[in-house]
Amino acid sequence: MAKYIFVTGGVTSSLGKGIIAASLAKLLQSRGLKVTIQKFDPYINVDPGTLNPYEHGECFVTDDGAETDLDLGHYERFLNTPTSQANNVTTGRIYQTVITKEREGAYLGKTVQVVPHITDEIKRRMLLLGETGQFDIVITEIGGTVGDIESLPFIEAVRQIQWELAEEDCLVVHLTLIPYLKAAKELKTKPTQHSVRMLSQEGVHPDIIVCRTEHPLNTEIKRKIALFCNVKPNAVIESADASTIYEVPIRMLEEGLDVIVLKQLHINGYSAPELSKWRGFLEKLQNPKSKVKIGLIGKYLELQDAYKSILESFIHAGAMNQVKVQIVNVHSEYITGENVAEKLSDLDGLLVAPGFGSRGVEGKITAVKYARENKMPFFGICLGMQMAVIEYARNIIGWKEAHSAEMEANTPYPVIALMEEQKKVKKKGGTMRLGAYPCTLKPGTLAHKIYNTDEISERHRHRYEFNNKYLSDFEDAGMIASGKNPQTGLVEIVELQNHPFFIGVQYHPELKSTVENPQPIFVSFIAAAKSFAEEKERLLPVKETV
Ligand code: GLN
Asked: How much is the pTM?
């Protein structure tokens, strides 16, 4: 039977519960245990697929086509194992299940209530993955902050599970903030005391307290937190700000978080942590030999989390190449034919980001043109690939009015068109082409060279596709389809033959990049950007020395 760890957060949001959960999971996995992580989110949307990236950051898609919270991306990047629909549950999904059952008559004669019906459904889902027999430990991250009205049923479910299970089968880790007051030159424990008290009032007592802090906690402070929050002093863990999230597992190992967990869960016979690959990655990440500047052309750039997986993929790919990747955000809305050179000439590579709707697309098309003409490494993802297709149609094939039917329904050249199966779709939630599909690679192409295999599987999230009616026109003009879905012929990858590195993919490769398995296109793109930068350097006029 699996054991359960719940991670709650107090004092403020954005403390990095996902990173702490993923780091703990990594450490337990490194000691030979089978671990998975799931996230319970308190909002009413059935999944985050209908949320604007400004609201909730990126929507992470799993192999089985679930649109999920971006923390699942961290879980996969840390653990190097895929998650699924079952790993992300929202209040909306819980209510939807209960209300559907009520309509079917499952509770006939009874009043359906938050306790026990909603809490029972939460509990059922919290225990589900543990009952598959695939895992020794299930870590559940509870979204939101303790004290929020909306997360109360989740906390109540945790209380009941704690009561039902044996003491050694379940524990609660509470993540809090220890603020530093500059004027008083002091770290303050009071907010932590209050948040633990709040959690206790809701019936749950934390076993371990992880404290986010900008300054080291001395033994005296740790003792104080332990005493007032009623945990043992060794169960107060310091989580100081780290230079990269990938350092957090090592910091937690040094603090002994995993050992306390193993002791409290009465798990014996675990092995020493095997983190050599992880440490190897960190070593390379922290000792880059050169630097490249990559332009991220998108429209949600004000919010860091909107392109989370892309940014993390660049970190993995940079480490692989021992190159520091500096991301330069370029707002697509403000790129014009006049200013494009000024905005992009300093870069070593260009990534045109995924997206929806017409805002900023002309800027993206202009950016693609610049990369194509200047032989700058180009990588287009989903909408980015579609923009590369439109740019080629307009400027090389000569179809000036070519467009995507998403932006211009009446274009005479819909080179990007709505997928056939999407035409009957009316509802918005969970109705895109989602999740993993196979793709066959054409031998002798850049894509084939990058992946070094004939068939790949990547994840998707789109409604529009390359219009195969025009494929021969494109191929005759030099843009080829180097990857296609073997069943439907849907174009998954386009590339240019007379360019050193120009690739666009309909899928989202960023969703599969992990520390231990960096995504191959990102790795090759950074290598190409590095060569581009070196070539630029070589061509610079030699400075005269006096
Ligand atoms: N809006 C485009 C489509 O639906 C691209 C989607 C994306 O970039 N994820 O096909």
From this structure: 0.94
The span from the CA of 435 to the CA of 505, in Å, is 15
Among protein residues, the one with the nearest Cα to ligand 1's atom 6 is 462
Q: Is 459 in the pocket of ligand 1 (CB under 6 A)?
A: no
**Residue with CA closest to ligand 1 atom 3:** 462
Q: Look at strands 479-484 and 433-441 and give their pairing.
A: antiparallel
Question: And the tokens for 188?
Answer: 């303050």
Is 253 a pocket residue for ligand 1 (Cβ < 6 Å)? no
- For the question of residue 382 being annotated catalytic, the response is yes
Amino acid in position 349: G
Q: Which residue from 352, 379, 461 has its CB within 8 A of the most atoms of ligand 1, so it is best to mutate?
A: 461
Residue from 56, 382, 406, 460 carrying the catalytic annotation: 382
Q: From ligand 1's centre to the CA of 382, what distance in Å?
A: 6
Which contacts qualify for 272-277: CB closer than 8 Å, 24 or more apart? 272/31, 273/27, 273/30, 273/31, 274/30, 274/31, 274/32, 275/26, 275/30, 275/249, 275/250, 277/515, 277/516
Q: Is 211 one of the annotated active-site residues of the chain?
A: no
Could you tell me the strand order of the sheet in which 464-466 lies? 403-404, 414-418, 464-466
Backbone angles phi, psi at 292, to 5 degrees: -125, 150
CA–centroid distance, residue 493 to ligand 1 (Å): 14
Q: Which long-range contacts (CB under 8 A, 24 or more apart) does 422-429 make?
A: 422/463, 422/464, 425/463, 428/50, 429/45, 429/46, 429/47, 429/49, 429/50
What tens digit of pLDDT does each residue of 289-318 get?
999 999 999 998 888 899 999 999 999 999
Q: What is the DSSP string of 298-336?
A: ES-TTSGGGGHHHHHHHHHHHHHHTEEEEEEEEEGGG--
Confidence of residue 55 (pLDDT cuts 50, 70, 90): confident
Query: Residues with Cβ < 8 Å from 111, sequence gap 6 or more?
Result: none
- CB of residue 511 inside a 6 A radius of ligand 1: no
Residue 312: active-site member:
no
